[in-house]
Amino acid sequence: MTAYKNNTISTGVSEFLLNCFVRSPSWQLWLSLPLSLLFLLAMGANTILLVTIRMEASLHEPVYYLLSLLSMLDILLCLTVIPKVLAIFWLDLRSISFPACFLQMYIMNSFLAMESCTFMIMAFDRYIAICHPLRYPSIINDQFVVKAATFILVRNALIPLPIPILSARLHYCWKNVIENCICANMSVSRLSCDDVTFNQIYQFTIAWALLGTDLILIFLSYTFILRAVLRLKTEGAVAKALSTCSSHFILILFFSTILLVFILTHVAKRKVSPDVPVLLNVLHHVIPAALNPIVYGVKTQEIKQGIKRLLKKGW
Question: Which residue range or ranges hold the G-protein coupled receptors family 1 profile domain (predicted)?
Answer without folding.
Answer: 45-296
